[in-house]
Amino acid sequence: MKLEKSITIINKLGLHARAASKLVGTASRFESKIILNRSGQEADAKSIMSVLMLAASQGTELQITIKGADAEEAWDHVATLINNRFDEDE
C-alpha cells in the first residue's frame, strides 16, 4: 500500500530536535518506509539527521509518502503526533 498526503507543521518551534526525535521514534515503530518531502528535499522519517536537515519551521507544509503493509496505521500515528504539536506546550 502507498499513501501520499500533506500536513502542515503547526507547533511554535517547528521540527526542532525534540520534535524530530519524537517523529523518528514514532516512524520507527512501523515497517513502512516513510519519506518526508519539503519543497523537493526528501528525508527518511526514521533518521534523526535526515529529519533535522529539513529545517521545517512552523507553517511548513510537508508531503509525506508512506509505502508498506502498515501505511494507514503509520499515517494515523504520524499525523496525530504532528497535529498534537508533538505534545508540547504552546
Textual characterization of the structure:
Helix content is 33%, strand content 27%. With 90 residues, it is an alpha+beta fold. It has a single domain, classed as Histidine-containing Protein, Chain: A, CATH 3.30.1340.10. A four-stranded antiparallel sheet has the order 1-4-2-3. The longest helix has 13 residues, at 71-83. The N and C termini lie far apart (35 Å). Keywords: Cytoplasm, Phosphotransferase system.
Task: Summarize this entry quickly.
One of its GO terms (biological process) is phosphoenolpyruvate-dependent sugar phosphotransferase system. It comes from Ketobacter alkanivorans. The protein is of the alpha+beta class and 90 residues long.
CATH class: Alpha Beta
Total of DSSP H or I helical runs spanning 4+ residues:
3
Largest sheet: 4 strands, antiparallel
- Report strand order across the widest sheet: 1-4-2-3
User: What structural category arises from helix and sheet content?
Assistant: alpha+beta
Short key terms for the protein model shown above:
90 residues, alpha+beta, Histidine-containing Protein, Chain: A
